[in-house]
Amino acid sequence: MGLHRFSQLLRTLDIQPMGHVDRAMTTPKRGRPKSEAKRRQILEAARTVLFDVGYSAMTMETVAELAGVSKPTIYSHFDSKEKLFGAVLQTGADERLRELSAISTNAEEAPEEALRRFGNQFLNLALSKEARAWDRIMIAEIGRHPAVANLFFQAGPSKVLALLGSYLREQDDAGRLRVPDPAIAAEQFIGLLLGIKLLRHRVGLDDDTNRGEWPRHVDEAVRTFLAAYRPKTADSA
């Protein structure tokens, strides 16, 4: 059988030659676009459920009911409970980081002022009611779900440390501070800000009625930090 007749036979039987690509099979089908508003609705419902019952007791069914959507709709946005939890964490962390990112917006601002502003903003966030709610969730879940603790740290604390470390590195490059290891220095400054205050807050011994004392606490943390990292002058050498 000649090649021409063989091709005609294939067309008659509706069989495509090897190597032929059917456009109908390869062209991706357009599904219904995911609604960003619905995604935010799901995240807000998940956050409410998390703060109410914790990660272990949270179910996709409960979130769907509160969000007013179907369970398949949730899975179209988040394919697992862990992914949903991570998205709730990341959304909240991104909002808080935007408030802290102002530390690096003014390169000419004195380190004292920049660190003081950062310290006050950080303390207000770290000791907020929402932060305390996350603390309770983490303490309850760490033993049962170690991955949850890692998600929490990567979404929030590690990014705060990276932001502060980047600022300290810039100040070292500019000669305003002497910071041999910005990563360690960032941890030290956060430690000065929180210290025993975080523990007192967690056990209910230090509540929002003491908020007026926080600026003085931040001032002392900045003073102590700069005593270690301010460039030494000829008089102080």
From TrEMBL:
Signal peptide span: none
Keyword ATP-binding: no
InterPro entries: DNA-bd_HTH_TetR-type_CS, Homeodomain-like_sf, HTH-type_TetR-like_transc_reg, HTH_TetR, Tet_transcr_reg_TetR-rel_C_sf, TetR_C_Proteobacteria
PROSITE patterns: HTH_TETR_1, HTH_TETR_2
GO MF annotations in UniProt: DNA-binding transcription factor activity; transcription cis-regulatory region binding
Binding region for DNA: 59-78
Occurrences of domain HTH tetR-type (ranges): 36-96
Keyword DNA-binding: yes
Gene3D superfamilies assigned: Homeodomain-like (1.10.10.60), Tetracycline Repressor, domain 2 (1.10.357.10)
Keyword terms of this UniProt record: DNA-binding, Transcription, Transcription regulation
Matching Pfam families: TetR_C_7, TetR_N
Matching PANTHER family: HTH-TYPE TRANSCRIPTIONAL DUAL REGULATOR CECR, HTH-TYPE TRANSCRIPTIONAL REGULATOR RUTR
Name of this protein: Putative HTH-type transcriptional regulator YfiR
